[in-house]
Amino acid sequence: MKTSSKRQHRERGVVLLLCLIVLVVMLAGGVAVMRSMNTSLSSAGNLAFKRDLVNQGEQAAVNALALFASGGALSGVGDDIADKKANNYSAVRLDENDRGIPYALLKTTEFDKVGVSTNDVDRKAAAGITVRYVIDRLCNIPGAASKANCVYAPANTDVRGGSVQESGRPPPAKALVYRLSVRVDGPRDTQVFLQSSFTKPE
After folding, report:
1. Contact 102, 89 (CB under 8 A)
2. I need a labelling partner for 14 at 20 to 30 A (CA). Which of 28, 147, 191, 201 fits?
3. What is the per-residue pLDDT across 119-143, written as a single tens digit (0 to 9) for each?
4. Which of 91, 67, 95, 54 has its CA nearest to residue 183?
5. 53: phi > 0 → left, psi -120 to 50 → alpha, else beta; which?
6. Which sign, positive or negative, has the C-alpha torsion 77, 80, 86, 88?
7. Is the pTM of this model over 0.90?
8. How far apart are the first and last CA of the chain?
9. H helices within the chain, ranges in order?
10. How far is CA 158 from each of CA 28, 109, 154, 161, 174, rounded to the nearest angstrom?
């Protein structure tokens, strides 16, 4: 009888040891799941910040198009042939990095040559967001635009085909292309860069 009782005590000790090992494994698994959830929540939060900054950056497009609309500072004939620092406008294409972002949005010293910070769309009071933008005309030199020095978009009435070329008629007029580049600074040191090209509204 004494022998069987000793066996029972040994078996109980082994079961306790196995239970402790299983608990440690489960604890490690729980910690891993919690870390994974925190990473997922952080990623979702970053995507939400990015989407919000993109939406806030649309204000720069509204301001830029207002400059070219009727009565705007760049709406008249010849208004766009020279730099207008007060409107963050450059009559020539701005220098850019390998991703196409103008250095004027990356370095304050470069921005000060092109624009003024008072044009920034400041939303710090509400959400800690600042929108900075620059507009450049896609030309190599300032002054009157020419096909040799500037980028033009095809007109809506542009006809392609042999009949037009054979007739000797000149091609339809084309619209000069401008580029809007935007940098949006947000909370948690987030930054979003946006860029679009457009022609002068008619």
Report:
1. no
2. 28
3. 888 765 567 788 999 999 999 998 8
4. 54
5. alpha
6. positive
7. no
8. 106
9. 2-68, 103-106, 108-114, 124-127, 162-167
10. 67, 42, 6, 10, 8
